[in-house]
Model the fold of this input.
Amino acid sequence: MLRFLGRRLVAMVFVLFSISVLSFLIFFATPGVDPASRIAGRNADQATLRAVRKDFGLDRPLPVQYGLMMKKLFITRDLTSFVNRGAKVIPQVTEAAPVTLSLVLGAAVIWVVFSIGMGLVAAVFRGTPVDAAVMIVGLIGISMPVFWLGEVVNLLTQSRFHDTFLFSWVPPLGYTPFTQSPFGWFKSLIFPWLTLSVLYIGIYARVLRSALVDAQEEDYVRTARAKGLTERRVMLRHALRTSLVAFVSLFGLDFGALVGGGALLTEVVFGLHGVGKLTFDSLQNLDLPVILATVMYAAFFIVLANALVDLVYALLDPRVRHA
Done:
């Protein structure tokens, strides 16, 4: 097991290093791209451009530029924005990260609980109207775009019915830090959680239902039934465990992508200034240091999520440890 963890750790470091090099080359070494002209302004003269290149180290060889950028990003942590001169990048990311983490963690709890429940119910009652009804509900959730559903939720809770007893408690759009008010934090995120989770509940319920149906035809499930175990025990202790392999794989990819900024549309609709919104704004302004920082942030969580998925694989199936 320790060897397995060691291999995964080495792979994580290599992937993150490769992503940092690739991101740097794309934004700083692409032919025709001159960060100095972006910093100095559209009509800057050559003297100003030379001064900017010297101040930001852009006149040095690319390996030196990369080393300086990584040093400022990870060691001294004093990397500054190209657009908002003097504004440090790391505080912007650390301020946005709790918003995105709060949004994704809450939504993940909701979609995991409901999708497992729906998948189990559909598998137990497969071929019946209950199975069809559960799958139809999931398909409806999958079919509703997040931005549309979020706007509908805002229309009902912030406008049409905000003054009624149903939604009078709903706060204005935005984020309330947990340290400031735990209950206010919950109220500000409950509808973003529900909106973001609707899509994934339908997807995960269908994936789990399919895996459970396939698992019930396996020999080990037939053996468990032959031993006289109850159907409930067979489903929960045998079929569900192996069926969660596909579920965990999908969850790791989606969770890492969302924490890395994939929840952009939800953040925009509900006025949450998370990592997705920060990345979107920096792309619009072509603020290269902020873009690089958010890309590395996203890459870290995606790689970490994949490593955790591999670890769960090893726990669910010992054969993976020797793969």
Summary: The mean pLDDT is 84.
